[in-house]
Amino acid sequence: MRAKRAKFVVSATKPSNFPAPALPEVAFAGRSNVGKSTLINTLTGVNKLAKTSNTPGRTRLLNWFEVVPPKGKELAFVDLPGYGYAKVSKSMREQWGEVIEAYLASRPVLRAVIVLIDARRGARDEEAELCAWLEAESIPAIVVLTKSDKLAKSKRKPAAMALKRELGLARAPIVFSAHTGDGVDELWNAIMRHGRKEARA
Predict the structure, then answer these.
(1) Is residue 49 within 8 Å of 5, Cβ to Cβ?
(2) Domain at 5-195, CATH from 3.40.50.300, 1.10.357.10, 3.20.110.20, 3.20.20.80
């Protein structure tokens, strides 16, 4: 499955620049080198919609995209700044964290957060803390194991089940690969399911 249509809308560096809440939103969060932009481009079928870079930590903006899913009504993808990159100053990391938290805590149209985790590395403190925070805030999390083609096929399901236990997830993470297309349909189905839900109170 691919999106019927997708386009870039706006970027923001602080809450005062966020666009007015309108479409249901699905946010994408993950470490700086986890393949977030590649995943968004794979889902939409639009090359370079989300800009990829050989320099992790380059995306310092929240980016909004209008997306028409394979089925159902239009929604918005929100690409959040990557976290956990050591070459970014501590003050900059803290600033990004504050902006991300402000978005997650205040966005009434947010339907779910897709938490990306590198299949080869597993969850670290940041991912565990983010998933726990989302659960406490009653924000649905869709956990995705990226770059799964880098693991042997026999290791992919065990890695997903181990992560499910580690993070206390109700569902096993989606095993995803932009290279092979694995997990694309499953992830789209999860996105469309959450996109149909009513706004949080």
Answers:
(1) no
(2) 3.40.50.300
